[in-house]
Amino acid sequence: MLTSCAPTYPKEKIVESVQELCEREYSVKVEVIIEGSTMGVRLPLKGLFNTETLQIKPEAFDKITGVMLSASRVALSSDKSIDFYTVIAYDAKVPGAEVVMTRYIYDLRRFFLGDISRGEFAKRMVFDVRFNPQAIIDTWLGDFTLKEQKFPEFMCEQIARRITDEFRESKDLAGKFKVASCEGKFEEDELKFVVDISREGLPVSELIHGKAWHEEVLELCMQKMCYVLYIYSFKKVDQLEAFNKFDNKVLTISKDEINKWRNRRIRID
Amino acid sequence: MLILHKRIKLFLLDHWIKMAIGSAVILLIGAAIYGLSTLESFYRHMTLATLPLQILIVAVNAMIFVYMYMTVFRGGFAKLDKGLVKGEKIAVTFKDVIGIDEAKQESWEVVELIKDRRKLQQIGGKVIKGILMMGPPGCGKTYLAKAIATESGIPFISMSASEFTEIFVGVGASRMRKLFKKARRLAEAHGGCIVFIDELDAIGKKRGYSYLGQGQETNSTQNQLLVEMDGLKEKQENVIVIGATNALEETLDDAMLRPGRFDRKVYIDKPNLEGREKLFRFYLSKVKHDDALNIARLARRAVYKSPADIMNIVKESALIATRNKKDKVALKEISEAMDRVDWGIKHRGFMTQKEKEMTAYHEAGHGVILYLLHPADDVFKISIVSRKGYLGVVMKHPKEELHGRNKEAFLADIKTALAGYVAEKIKYGTTTNGVSSDFRNVMFIAHTMVWRLGMGRSGLVGDYSLYGNNTNSDAPSANQLSEATKEKLNEETQSIMQDCLKEVEALLKKEWDIVEKIVKELLSKEELEFDEIEAIFKQFCKNEPSASGDDNK
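^ inputs. structure came back:
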């Protein structure tokens, strides 16, 4: 009884535990590294992408999901304080091409407790297909190094993904906009987002929902920024700024306005 | 060895269900612990964290299910929602119990027995189990029970017997068990407990058995009461049951009345003259009243009234005084209150002058004969104001508290009843249907005198109504009287009435001036009180006969 109260995956054996689980349950060998409170799992796969469509193959996707589940189980049932885990799947045959998925353990717990929906849980994962992986992963002479994930960076990546997905998947916006770039960073308690979003074939003065489309773009970015800050109750921010490189327009809102938005007293539009 | 084997076998036979359930529970708990221990720590913690909530939800679901099941299919719970009342908090002492001195004396003995139970047990005596208070309604049975609880200073649980009865068999018995369980616990903690069951006849009537199952619930409730009072118990607690009932003792089940159950019976009757005086004094002390009020006379007038009636009269008189813008209660208000309690509300102004006059002669006839001839009753009021469907009324009250009635009193009753008819006949030469209820009374009294009480002149004695008066019955005992005997008895009845009629006619003619005077007064005042009536008779130098029957005219 008493031993059953102990963590299933003690911190001393956390690396071995992930490897063992992945091998036992999904028959894959992974490399695991812990950096601060971030756990990185590197998964080599033969045939990650379909070389014709450049889409992830379904069997590869199953293995990635299995490894993510193993990482989740270990992170949740360990006495080691893990805040993030990142699964990097790569294909040796396609050098430099990687799928990177990062999860926040806090989101994981809330999902298991039924506090957030499956859809929202999926949106909170940072997912990226990279063909130039040096930003996070340094591969040099076969060594695998990991940069510790910081929460503000994670939020920025999540906001960027939400903005990109919105323009790509939303019924009203899909196919009409081109998202050339979208990235943000925290600088002295100010969250700045720089996007390059254009609407081809339409003049800047064209109206969407009664507004010039470039204003709509910045407002949408701002909404996503506010929303992500809100869901994590992140208050250490004084100002938000969204800048569209395409037309050099900028939208800024203050801390007071963020709070009012949180209290549903104002709308960002 | 064989005995041990048999005992083990018997134990297993007796307890196999409990043992099976216990084993299953242990098995399930073991399986749950094993299952939990095989989970990863996060899932284990998550399961354990949500366990209290799950237990709560299951418990709430179970409660809702049981509640619905019991409410819809089983007629509700046999719950006993009776709180403890501490004896001293009831605050009704023996000083507050007025007018029922004998019952009070008997009850005081009960209190002494409750208080000195240890001493009693030391000398080998047994504590009383039950006290049955019997008597008419409103005589203070509940009040006396409260006084017993206060004086003995032990907890008191009060219930009405009707609270035990339910349509579903077994619910009443279950409530009874719960009541006594509670009482025993209180008795253990406080050294004794009084259980007061009001209207005991609801569960205490003689048990009957029906093939259709009628009365089964009452029977089982009563059986449970009997068992609780004098059943086989591991420990005898000092629980005293006080039952109160208006029902006659004969109607109660014999098993309830035997020693060991309700072994002490306290008869609480209506208060006597002295008691009524005390009651009037007590209740009048709570309202502002005229100091000149003759309380002794009020007590005389309120003969056969219960304490509750007297309380009601005083309360009603205070209301009347307020309505009449008086600052205190006087005789007029009390008299009106008594009339209202006895005869209901007055209906004025719907009779014609002629009707009023005829009613006045009718009532004056009653009043004069009642005053001059009746040995037992006084005339307290004559009224020609309509009440309860009567156009007029002569209110009479016994001169003193008599518990029997002699032949002379019966004859006086007949004469008084016939006097209205005679007065109408003398004055108008005709009569009205106002005599119908008088004749019904006359017939009943005369018939009873001859057929049942041997008060006829022929010398026939015995209760002939038992064997000769039921023409509708086929029972052998129903018609055993000869026609000749019946005829003789009926002639006797008629002769009594005729004699009385003649006597009344002669007397009224002789005293017609008094009748006329009363009629005149009635037509001007509508109602005459005792003092006014007496003044009229004094004016004509007439006195009432005494209660012993001596005529002082």
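The first helix of chain B runs from residue 2 to 38. Confidence is low (pLDDT under 50) at residues 549-553 of chain B.
thumbs up if we can close this ticket
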